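dumping this here so i dont lose it
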């Protein structure tokens, strides 16, 4: 009997691990709430609630300044959350800029929903055609919540902006996160929390760094593309959920190179349908190993390029339910000018730098193909060997 238990336990754990790995983690699709709900009751408070941005928000007449579950339009089922607001024409204080901090602070239903900062946040947004363009930014509170995803994670901790590299004004306020321009259609908005840029908003732990592994979806920040566009703005939100993300790892061989590979940045592009969906600069370890963190589920073509090496594209890498390993490439040397071909142009660049060492007027680090800190016949030999080679597109 004991043997049987030892055999079945790992099997059961394996099944559970697989089930969890493939999951998304729902927060809400708004179907469980009455429509229309009381304004500001479900997940997000009414627009003027936050003292940070209330000074910018027109509080009358209705339907401005409302946040309600409605049945106008829905991504899932029949319900979504509609947010209406209008900015006041009053000039913002010196050094400030209009924006809306739409906060979840102690809402009646779904207050302060907990996020696992190791996963992505995804939701859907629908913008009617007469609403002006805006940026949306995620604001998270570093509560160190122990609640499950979507559970009340509390209101204690600093707030960081995720997804914005630019913040207008000295507030700091009006973050420029993801620009939303599509109209009259549902669009997917993803904040890949582990790798989004972080900007300080407010509170003692707000420092541009996520220090905890869990916290709270404190706000969505809406910043008008044109700071002087007052609205009205109408935005529908639906299907808040978290999506597990995974690492992709492998090895990059920088061919014909005896230098320090840890000092050679490798640019990697994740492409889908011919579009670059993410760019990252990889740092290799001494053995050429790399890791791309927090990749969203999907199938990718992954492109690798380093300064004087040709690009290699690995097609059809599928990320789903587990980390991907063994995406290995070997890059051909000799592309001194970086145009992804080894041609006479590279030969010309090598001749121009021939004999140079670091500090010389004609030193060109990219012409030192073998990385021995001198441009010599050895580099010339590498170029000749690979002459005519063309990298992947
Ligand atoms: Ca719905
Ligand atoms: Ca922080
Ligand atoms: Ca070239
Ligand atoms: Ca050399």
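and the seq i came up w/
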């Amino acid at each position: 009997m004991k043997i049987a238990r030892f055999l079945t336990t790992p099997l059961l754990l394996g099944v559970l691990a697989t089930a969890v790995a493939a999951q998304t983690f729902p927060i809400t699709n708004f179907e469980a709430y009455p429509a229309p709900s009381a304004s500001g009751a479900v997940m997000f408070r009414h627009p003027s609630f936050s003292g940070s941005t209330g000074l910018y928000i027109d509080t009358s007449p209705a339907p401005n300044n409302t946040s309600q579950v409605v049945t106008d339009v829905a991504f899932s089922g029949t319900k979504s959350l509609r947010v209406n607001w209008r900015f006041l024409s009053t000039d913002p204080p010196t050094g400030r800029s209009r924006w809306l901090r739409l906060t979840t602070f102690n809402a009646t239903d779904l207050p302060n929903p907990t996020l696992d900062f190791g996963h992505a946040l995804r939701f859907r947004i629908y913008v009617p055609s007469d609403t002006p363009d805006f940026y949306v930014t995620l604001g998270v509170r570093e509560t160190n919540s122990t609640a499950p995803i979507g559970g009340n994670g509390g209101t204690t901790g600093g707030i960081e902006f995720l997804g914005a590299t630019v913040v207008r004004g000295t507030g700091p306020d009006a973050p420029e996160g993801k620009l939303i321009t599509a109209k009259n259609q549902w669009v997917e908005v993803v904040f890949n929390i582990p790798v989004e840029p972080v900007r300080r908003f407010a509170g003692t732990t707000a420092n541009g760094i996520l220090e905890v592994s869990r916290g709270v979806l404190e706000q969505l920040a809406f910043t008008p593309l044109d700071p002087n566009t007052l609205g009205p703005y109408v935005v529908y939100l639906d299907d808040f959920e978290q999506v597990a993300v995974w690492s992709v790892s492998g090895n990059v061989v920088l061919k014909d190179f005896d230098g320090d590979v840890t000092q050679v940045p490798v640019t990697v592009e994740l492409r889908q349908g011919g579009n670059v969906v993410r760019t990252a600069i990889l740092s290799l370890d001494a053995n050429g190993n790399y890791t791309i963190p927090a990749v969203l589920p999907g199938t990718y073509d992954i492109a690798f390029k380093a300064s004087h090496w040709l690009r290699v594209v690995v097609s059809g890498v599928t990320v789903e339910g587990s980390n991907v390993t063994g995406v290995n490439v070997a890059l051909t040397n000799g592309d001194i000018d970086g145009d992804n071909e080894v041609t006479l142009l590279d030969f010309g660049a090598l001749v121009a730098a021939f004999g140079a060492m670091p500090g010389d007027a004609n030193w060109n680090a990219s012409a030192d193909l073998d990385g021995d800190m001198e441009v010599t016949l050895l580099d010339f030999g590498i170029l000749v060997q690979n002459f005519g080679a063309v990298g992947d597109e």
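Residues 368, 370, 372, 374-376, 378-379 surround calcium ion (ligand 4) (CB under 6 Å).
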